[in-house]
Design goal:
It contains 22 helices and 27 strands. It is an alpha+beta fold. The chain folds into four domains: 44-311, PAS domain (Beta-Lactamase); 344-445, 2-Layer Sandwich (Beta-Lactamase), CATH 3.30.450.20; 464-713, GAF domain (Beta-Lactamase), CATH 3.30.450; 715-886, 2-Layer Sandwich (Heat Shock Protein 90), CATH 3.30.565. The strands form six sheets. A five-stranded antiparallel beta sheet has the order 2-1-5-4-3, sandwiched between helices. Strands 7-6-10-9-8 form a five-stranded antiparallel beta sheet, sandwiched between helices. A five-stranded antiparallel beta sheet has the order 12-11-15-14-13, with helices on both faces. The longest helix has 81 residues, at 2-82. The protein is flat. The chain starts with a helix and ends in a 5-residue tail after the last helix. The relative contact order is 0.04. Residues 1-8, 130-136, 825-829 and 873-891 have low confidence and may be disordered.
Length: 891
Amino acid sequence: MQKFEKQNRLVTESFLRELRKRLLLIILLAVIPIFGMILYQAKLARDVQLGEALEDAWGLVESVAIREARFIDSAKQLLTLLADVSDLTGGDPASCQRFLKPLVAHNRGYVELGMADAEGRVRCRIGETDSALSKTPKTSHFHAAIKAKSFAIGDYQRHGPEGRSSVSFAYPVVGRDGSVNALIFAALDTAWIAQLAAENNLPPGVALSILDSKGTILARFPEPEKWLGKHIPDAALFEVLALRSQQSKDLVGLDGIDRIYAFKPLSLAGAVGQIYVMVGVPKEVAFGPAHDALARNLMLLLLVSAVAISIASLIGSKFVIEFVRIRAETNALREQLAAIVQSSEDAIVGMSLDGTISTWNNGAEWIFGYRAEEVTGKSVCRLMPGDRVDEIPELLGIVSLGRGVNRYESERIRKDGSRLYVSASLSPIRDHFGSVVGASMIARDTTLLRKREEQLSAHAARLETLHGIAEDVAGSLAIDEVLSRALKRLVAEGGFDWAFARLAAAVDGQECFAATRAPVSKAELDAAWRALGDDFAQRLWQCRNPWYVESIAAAAEFGQAAAAGARGSVAVLPLGRGDQFKAALVLVNGSERTFGPEDTQFLQAVSRQITLALENAWLYSGTMAANEKLRREIDQRKHAQKVLADFTAMVAHDLRSPLSNVVSIVDSVREGLFGPVTALQEKWLWKIQTNCRSLIQHVSDFLDLSKFNAGQLQLVKAPADMAALVEDCAQEYAIEADKRRISLITQIEPGVSSCPIDERRINQVLGNLLSNALKFTEAGGAIEIGAGKRDNGDLMIWVKDSGVGIAVEELEYIFEMYRQSQSGQESYHRGTGLGLAICKKIIEAHGGSLWVESEVGRGSAFYFTLPPNGVSQPDVSQQRQASRATNDERV
């Protein structure tokens, strides 16, 4: 044991050293890519900072160059103008002096201004000059202006006792022969150049310099006085200046500061000579943020690496202490595991690789019936049935390879010899070196579970059969198809050999439907039914509840069949409910069968499904017969209605023609065509004419109604001005209203437009409504006819009166045919009750709605709507609400 512990300790120390090495290697592998990424990010940041610095420098160079170019261009323009002055080019020196002196006095930016001939002799000069500058015109820019015959930019100079610095310019005066006759020269004070450059706000550390073509500083910021007039001897700088183009370069300036410079030559179109603008950004300023970020990232990486190395070392040192603690906990866990194994209800058996039992817990004793001392050291094969003796060696062979077998189903033998089902798992047992030395088996008794699964499987099969029967019978509404499908499903999946369905009343000449497991002839089916006996056939229709016979031979009701040698079992289930129809389901099995609770529930559920399907089929067949009967009645009524409409039209036509003749004759008599007419005759002739016209109107109403009912009324629509239509109708009835001393008011709201209507029919509606209003309004009353436009775009027309009104209970049927308001019984004008019905049909044929609002004693208000484009809009309830909101006052 001591030797084993020493070996274990040596193995632990070796593992600890290896662990530390691997941790350090992992840290290095992680740090190196991070270090490379930091350097890469620093390079990217440096490039970005360089680009931004150059962009800022170029922006500043462009700004300064534009300002200085404008200033020099003004000098060029001045010299160009002076070249055209005859007092300068052709006059004597005195006139030249007189002309230039006030010009120089006025423009203080010029140090001197003068003219010389082509040989360099000065004709006149105004400004600060000395003997040293007497030959100033014979400078490089002087010769350049003569040679190029164009404006020339000179170099840096100093003038007079005040020591003013300047930059020189020259402009040639070209004669008619193309030769240079003279030159106008000028010296511009560099203070003005410095003043323009100073107007730019420079960032800290940035240097701005303006140089002439020889590299002399004309202006510099900061410290302009310190660097003015100094020459730059740096070879690299001259190399850039010699390029005479826009450039950028990394240089060390006169002040010893390493900068990134942006250069741009300042020249004018057609001019000779150049001035350079140079802006330098210190590298410390350009790359400072990138360098700071690199330093921070490197310090952070160094700190993280140090922490990681410390943690790795700590882990390695702490591992030994942790190992000792874990080993102690492992021993405690082993004791707990042993207690758990002993208290487990599952059988836990340890064995060697040859199948010899080494451990046996209490659960194994309870399941198999053996005590531990009875099986320890014995082969585990004694637990196996005779047909499974080869199972254990195969399983142990798998375990010896280091693999386990999880949850396989098998059988075992108890001590008393009974079989049981188990769910077992085998796992390898290893020693300290990882070698497989045995196997552990965990077995759970699943006998009750297996039986329960078989019951559930049988129950699921019954449910599936029931579902199949339900789908079969639900797929048809024919009684013969319902019964045939159900019986075939029962013999195929229900476990019966024969299935019969008997009907008390034949369906399509058939009283019995049958199905068998094996195909048989109709004669064999009849023979099988007769084998049940006449007594059974009589008792069948007396059965009101399910009847189960487990043995035909033992049942007294089947004595006749038993005597004939019939055997098996029978289930009888009534199918009919109530007196609608009567049927029975008979299921026959060739062998005796026990009908348990689940079987009876299943068969009763099947009978209910078939009963429901039979009821649906019966109701469907009855419904179809009733529908056919109703269809024939509807056809007969339609035919009768058509005959009636034709008869009505014929009678109306035959009545209206003679009556119209009578009216014409009465008109002729009243007009004195057949002689003088007395007052009494006039009275009776008027009554005859009035009654005939009323009868003609009634006949016309009957004719219109018959056309509506026959669907023969055709509307002739055309756009009509509704406001004018309402006004015309009101004027038509105004005389009648005046006779009865009734006020007739017309109310047309703004926005009433034209719409497509049958104008004759809408006139008919308005005339009927106004006629009714006049009938039921007493003298001194008022009638209002108006039109307006609703929010939904529909046109609404109304006729309101202050007459007797209509009772609430009469509003429901006021628009029905032959219905008249009882509130106006005192009126001596009684109609047929068809006017409002015809009006409603006309308005609805236009796509509108007609309704009434009334109270007894407060008058009535009839409204109807017309869609502006001939298409109906919202329902009547919305229109009524709108009419109440805008027309809440009655006449």
